[in-house]
Every structure is written in structure tokens, then in C-alpha cells.
């Protein structure tokens, strides 16, 4: 914890101290901060800090990559220090990332980033749910644990509640987060989602058809809460201040709720059904080709920011079918990077590059691919292409074998094996191995210009 506190202190000094901070938060791997005055930032110092493996600026937000789990610890330590008053070998990684994000930023990337920000805070809950469900699947297998399920049904029942809780309140969480991202009232966002999910809807007939609680899933919630935010903002500017506090939530609820039930929930249901059916059909019928295309092009999508548009699709697949066949395919893209990095490690004579790879490979195996991508394969050029080809081979096999996971998103790599549906775990691990080997072979054959010391 002393290292974490020291890193937190160094970051605070590098960003100009507490008074320069407008907003401080974290995601899975990054410390995210918005400041009042960019001139007070000592970027050279921040980038060189031991424990910071990369830096990138997105909009007004400065992001320091410190690693999975560690990001939350560093932010907590920073907040504690504000209340009271890894490895630094990836300098090239942060420079590469900043350049790539700026150069290849797609027109829709900002809007898609807002969409992704609705779901990012839910990642810990998704991870816990998926892993618990994986444990339950193991405990139900007589060939592994014998008669455990027969002797301990209550324990399995409790674990089942733990594993499914996030999906029971999914729409409420999405409603609250959507309101937060767009700047609306958090409570009202939850209320809108509650209206769409209310079991009492089933007792109401509209236009000769019974309403369906939860129809449209998260897509309907997103549409309705965005409308709620817009109406709430308009009413705030129109109503006198003396009555705005009372009339705004009342009128917002009545207007948004009515439009939601009559139009937006059916529209969300149609979109949701089209997404789930289209994605499932493509994977089921596409086989090797679709798997190769999805996995092989995923990392280029990441570079442009367009991958964030896939987040609701992951959620919809799990809500519609109880499993996600897309995530295992896309995870092979990062696996190909592992094979490519191993090939570079064996061929390069650059000691600094070797050090970078040795530091990044362990987290790469666990599904955290940024250090390998931005610090190794992408700067070298051909290894990045080879890694994408290796991922395409793995993705083709995963798609052909119809491997699926019970989790929406949040983990990949080897840990994802714990959440794979029963009977497909070994196939996932085999696809993982093939992707590593393919990424290695493609890199070995294509070669690369070994950087000088």
C-alpha cells in the first residue's frame, strides 16, 4: 500500500494538486481526471512515473493507465490524501496510444464512448455474476464434484441469487447511469427504468395488445432516459423557479412515461429483437468466416473507438438468450497479440523492448492487452497485422464451435474460461492456444524491423 500511496501522491503533484482537479474517477485500468488548467499538468513527469504504463487524453479527460484493480486503489489513495490536506517501461506505449487515438478517431466515437460510459460502471457486477455462474456450473457436474448438487441444494440456490442479481436490476442500473452520463436526475432515470420494468404493465391492454414488462431491455431504457433528460432540461428552463422543483419531476414523469409506453418501448423492443436475432444469426450461420472477420477486425475498431458500440449488443445477447456467443470470439483478438509478442520477444535484440514484453505478457494472458498493443505490436507495424490474423484464426474456430459465455463483457483472455458454458470450456482453451500459435507464426513469417537501442 505504500507504493500505491506514493504513486497517488506523485500523480497529484503531476496534475497540479487538488485545486486543479475538476473531476476524479477510475475505470478498470485507468485513473481518469479532468483539470481546470492543462498548463499546470507536468505530463513528462506523469508519463515517467513508475507504475504508470501509459497516458491518453480523450476530450477533456486525462487518463493514466496504472493496471487492473490498481486504478481504483490509486484513486482511493488520491482522495484520501486530498481529504487529509507496475513498471514505467511503457513510455512508447502511451505516446503511440495518444497518436493513434488522435489519428484514427472515428466520427461516432465520442457518442459511442458516452454509450459505453453507461455500462462501464457495471463491469464489476458483470464479472462477479459471470464467475459465480461459472462456479455453479462446475458444482452441478457430477463428473467433477460428485453428488454436491444433491447434498447442498440450498447453497446452489443462494449462489444462483448472487449470480443473477445484476440482471434482476439491470434496467434500473442502466437508467441511473444513463441519467448520470447525460446530466439528468439520477432518481428520475431509475424511475423511468422502473416504469418500463413494472410487472403491472402485463395487466394493461393498449391498442388491443397486452403490454410486456421489460420489453426492449436496455435499448428501451436508453431511449426513454435520454428523452427524460431532454424534457427535464427543457422544463427547467421554462418553469418559474418557485414551482420548478415540484412540477418538473411530475410533468417529466407523466410526459416521458406516456411516450415510453406508447412509442419508445415498442421501438426499443423492435431494435433489441433485431440486434439479438441479427447477431445470433450471423454467428450461427456465418461459422468460420464471420468469426474470423469479427475477431480479425476488432482491434482496428478499438483504435477508432467504434468498438464501444458493441457494448449494448453484449448485454442484449445475454438478456435474450442467457448467454453471449460474441464475447469469446472477440476475445481472440487480444490472444493473437500474446502470440505476436512472444515471437517479437524471441527475435528482437533490443533489451528495452524485451523488458516491455516481459512486463506486459502476464496481464496480456489475463486479457489486458493495452500494454502489448500500444507498447509492442502496433509501433512495430507488421506484428500488429500478424496479431490480428492470429486472432482471426482463433475467432473462426470459436465461432465454428459455437462457444458461448454467461457473462456480458468485462473480462477476456484466460479468466473468461471460467464463465464459458458447460461443455465448451476445453474448446475455448483450444481456440486460445491456436490463436497464440497463429499470432506467433504470422509474426515470425512477416518479420519486423528490430528497433535500435
Task: Explain how this protein is built.
With 453 residues, this protein is mainly alpha-helical. It is built from 20 helices and 6 strands. Strands 1-2-4-3 form a 4-stranded antiparallel beta sheet. Strands 5-6 form a two-stranded antiparallel ribbon. Helix 4 crosses helix 18 and helix 11 crosses helix 13. The longest helix is centred in the middle third of the chain and has 56 residues. The chain is globular and about 70 Å long. It starts with a helix and ends in a 7-residue tail after the last helix.
* Average pLDDT over all residues: 83
Q: Indicate the radius of gyration in whole angstroms.
A: 24 Å
Taking the alpha carbons of the first and last residues, their distance comes to: 34 Å
Shape designation? globular
Helix-strand pattern, N to C?
A: HEEHEEHHHHHHHHHEEHHHHHHHHH
Task: Report the total helices.
Answer: 20
DSSP, total strands: 6
Give a quick account of the main beta sheet: strands, pairing sense, barrel closure.
4 strands, antiparallel
**Beta-strand content:** 5-15%
Taking pLDDT < 50 over at least 5 consecutive residues as the criterion, the unreliable ranges are 86-91
Strand order of the largest sheet: 1-2-4-3
Structural class: mainly alpha
Helical fraction? 55-70%
Amino acid at each position: 500500500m505504500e507504493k500505491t500511496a506514493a504513486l497517488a501522491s506523485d500523480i497529484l503533484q503531476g496534475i497540479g494538486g487538488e485545486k486543479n482537479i475538476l473531476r476524479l474517477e477510475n475505470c478498470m485500468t485507468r485513473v481518469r481526471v479532468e483539470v481546470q488548467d492543462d498548463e499546470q499538468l507536468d505530463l513528462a513527469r506523469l508519463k515517467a512515473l513508475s507504475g504508470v504504463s501509459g497516458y491518453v487524453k480523450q476530450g477533456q479527460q486525462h487518463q493514466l493507465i496504472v493496471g487492473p484493480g490498481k486504478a481504483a486503489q490509486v484513486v482511493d489513495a488520491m482522495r484520501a490524501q486530498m481529504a487529509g490536506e507496475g513498471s514505467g517501461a511503457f513510455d512508447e506505449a502511451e505516446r503511440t496510444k495518444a497518436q493513434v487515438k488522435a489519428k484514427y478517431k472515428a466520427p461516432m466515437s465520442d457518442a459511442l464512448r458516452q454509450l459505453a460510459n453507461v455500462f462501464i460502471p457495471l463491469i464489476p457486477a458483470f464479472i462477479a455474476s459471470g464467475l459465480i455462474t461459472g462456479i455453479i456450473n462446475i458444482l452441478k457436474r457430477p463428473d467433477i464434484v460428485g453428488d454436491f448438487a444433491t447434498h447442498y441444494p440450498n447453497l446452489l440456490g443462494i449462489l444462483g441469487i448472487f449470480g443473477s442479481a445484476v440482471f434482476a436490476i439491470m434496467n434500473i442500473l442502466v437508467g441511473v447511469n444513463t441519467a448520470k452520463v447525460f446530466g439528468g436526475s439520477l432518481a428520475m432515470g431509475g424511475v423511468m427504468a422502473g416504469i418500463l420494468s413494472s410487472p403491472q404493465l402485463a395487466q394493461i391492454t393498449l391498442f388491443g395488445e397486452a403490454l410486456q414488462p421489460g420489453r426492449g431491455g436496455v435499448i428501451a431504457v436508453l431511449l426513454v432516459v435520454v428523452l427524460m433528460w431532454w424534457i427535464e432540461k427543457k422544463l427547467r428552463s421554462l418553469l418559474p423557479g418557485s414551482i420548478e422543483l415540484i412540477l418538473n419531476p411530475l410533468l417529466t414523469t407523466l410526459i416521458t412515461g406516456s411516450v415510453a409506453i406508447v412509442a419508445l418501448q415498442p421501438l426499443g423492443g423492435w431494435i433489441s429483437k433485431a440486434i439479438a436475432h441479427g447477431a445470433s444469426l450471423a454467428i450461427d450461420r456465418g461459422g468460420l468466416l464471420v468469426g474470423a472477420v469479427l475477431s480479425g477486425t476488432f482491434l482496428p475498431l478499438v483504435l477508432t473507438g467504434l468498438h464501444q458500440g458493441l457494448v449494448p449488443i453484449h448485454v442484449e445477447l445475454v438478456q435474450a438468450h442467457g448467454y453471449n456467443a460474441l464475447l469469446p470470439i472477440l476475445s481472440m483478438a487480444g490472444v493473437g497479440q500474446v502470440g505476436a509478442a512472444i515471437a517479437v520477444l524471441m527475435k528482437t535484440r533490443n533489451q528495452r523492448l524485451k523488458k516491455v514484453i516481459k512486463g506486459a505478457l502476464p496481464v496480456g494472458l489475463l486479457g489486458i492487452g493495452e500494454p502489448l498493443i500500444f507498447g509492442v505490436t502496433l509501433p512495430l507495424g507488421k506484428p500488429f497485422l500478424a496479431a490480428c490474423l492470429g486472432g482471426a484464426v482463433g475467432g473462426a474456430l470459436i465461432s465454428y464451435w459455437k462457444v458461448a459465455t454467461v457473462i456480458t463483457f468485462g473480462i477476456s483472455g484466460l479468466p473468461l474460461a471460467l464463465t464459458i458454458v458447460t461443455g465448451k470450456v476445453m474448446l475455448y482453451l483450444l481456440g486460445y492456444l491456436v490463436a497464440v500459435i497463429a499470432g506467433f507464426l504470422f509474426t515470425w513469417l512477416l518479420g519486423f524491423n528490430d528497433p535500435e537501442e
